[in-house]
UniProtKB/TrEMBL annotation:
GO biological process, one term: positive regulation of transcription by RNA polymerase I
Catalytic reaction(s) noted: ATP + H2O = ADP + phosphate + H(+)
GO molecular function, one term: double-stranded RNA binding
Domain of life: Eukaryota
Annotated region described as Disordered, given as residue ranges: 1-22
Compositionally biased region (Polar residues): 1-13
Domain named Helicase ATP-binding: residues: 51-253
InterPro entries in the record: AAA+_ATPase, DEAD-box_helicase_OB_fold, DEAD/DEAH_box_helicase_dom, DNA/RNA_helicase_DEAH_CS, HA2_WH, Helicase-assoc_dom, Helicase_ATP-bd, Helicase_C-like
Descriptive protein name: RNA helicase
Gene label: LOC110750373
Amino acid sequence: MAQGQGRLNSSTKIPKGNLSDGNRKLDAFSKQMLAQHRKSLPIASVDKRLVEEVQKHDTLIIVGETGSGKTTQLPQFLYNAGFCGDGKLIGITQPRRVAAVTVAKRVAEECGVNLGEKVGYSIRFEDMTSSLTRIKYMTDGLLLREALLDPHLSRYSVIIVDEAHERTVHTDVLLGLLKSVQDARSKSLNNLQNTKNKKTNNDIQLKENGAQCLNFLKQYQGRTPLKLIIMSASLDARIFSEYFGGARAVHIQGRQFPVDIFYTLHVENDYLDASLATIFQIHLEEGPGDILVFLTGQEEIESVERLVKERLKQLPENSKKLVAVSIFSSLPSEQQMRVFAPAPPGFRKVILATNIAETSVTISGIKYIIDPGLVKARYYDPNKGLESLVVVPISKAQALQRSGRAGREGPGKCFRLYQEDQFGKFEDSTKPEIKRCNLSNIILQLKALGVDDISGFDFIEKPTRSAIVKSLEQLFLLGALTDDCKLSNPVGRQMACLPLDPIYSKALILASEFNCLEEMLITVAMLSVESIFYSPRDKKEESRTTKKSFASPEGDHLTLVNVYRASNEFLEKRSGLSKEKREKAFRKWCKENFIDSRSLRHARDIHSQIRRNVEQMGLRVASCGDDVLQFCRCLAASFFLNAALKQPEGSYRALANGEIVSIHPSSVFFKNKPECLIFNELVETNRKYIRNTTRIDYLWLTELAPQFYAVQN
């Protein structure tokens, strides 16, 4: 991908005119360095060949190692070759928003344009494009949503599906959709061509009906075949080639230096402690080079980041030259760029990342990898109707991708925090997400696209019948589907318009009827980010006491609403300050209250976006005020599938499937357990925990969700 992205500060914009000679030299030097870097990428030597292959074939598979330059350079090659004629776009999809943003910024920098002009990006809740945009990076889910408005994706001449080897559910469905779009556009073009041939045989008719002819020519010129390029970092492209009828595959040779692999002698029971110890072992004993640590999520990353900073304080002055930075999917765009900036002179950088750093982004300077061998993934059990977030072992393919990150610029080392025989037990490749996730969201999108027969959709790998049936059942219970499995009107169509999980979309629609949409907007925004609160190891009691000041006796959802409103009040009182001072004060307030400022800032951005969405749909935004019972009833009506009843020994039984679960320690109900509650998430570690809970009356379920609950003695 965008190798070397950290060498320049893309956020710095030098104004035109009145530049000092020093700035002119710096600008010229920067351009020269960029040009040299682009020429040095493996893909640069095959640029003409790739363009020719795209011109010859409507579908092309490109296999290239991470760092070969395929993500940043190929769209530019195609743009320069004229693929954006008639105002057409080149679209590049990414499985992750971080990659879409960072790569778009890099390509804009290489093109010497402002982001949002010739080069832009679109992700959920954020659009940085304009009428000038011709190279557009976006998440695969966003292109699926775009197809709702433009089923033929007529604005695009080329679609590049990047990181296809990750096999996310959106990528798999997108490939099926693009296959049908290609067929539809080819048939449409052939029909127009035949019509054109017939018309040109009758010059008199053309002259007599000039207006009709002009309209036909415009229609003909606007239709072009869709060029589809599938890019993968995995060497095995057979599944994609076979799916697209034997599509041609092109391999780009990468650059890989030797990487020494080290395993642990014993099982590491606490991989976070082991990661921390290995960071400082490398820092104090190994030569120069940055460290990349793979962790499972935001909470772990921020915990290790704090521990690194605390441990540094205990070291001698000459050993403190280590700076910790992090990258994960929900990190705000401007903070994502910190990982690409080089460390200060004489310092070493340690990057704490999720599996996004396996292939989605390329970070310069990495020489050491720390790999605990774990990843956080969602697993759905259709028999129980239960989706859980589980930390599981990675695959062999993922382990190889991770170790390979140390050998992009020179010889490196990879420290695997597991034994060698454990590696042998890993699965060869990651199970496609479509085989292990709840399909209700994707089925809702397909229904909105006019796909009635879900089982008959041309999936690259079909999900199980039980998963499809269970997801259809869930959508029916939420009121999104009619008795004959069509999209309901207006509820189903409204739900499909919102870029949210179906259960959250339904909650917003219901909240308008319950006169508590203001509270539900806040709740959904806060639930759309990782944990708002954090609890440092050495300040657990202090953080618990502080959290109690926001706690609602009704549960975690209203507690989140209280946090959001407290932040609103804090910022409103400081509206007279400059943006920089206001932001600094906001971060300080968050720290004092043990609130994750990044998560809260992201939630505030999401709230603004979904508020615009519901207002455009005509939903009435009102507050329940002091009538919190109305809000709790709305939660019960929305999340009735996630209701649980207290058991005599203090655990809970999920009413939908009988699963025995426990309240997560982060909940306000951890000690004072109500008789009945609803929850939002099941997290599976050593036990099955439910998170984000609200107290409800059991009888509400039969009143508010009679389609699912029957009155029982």
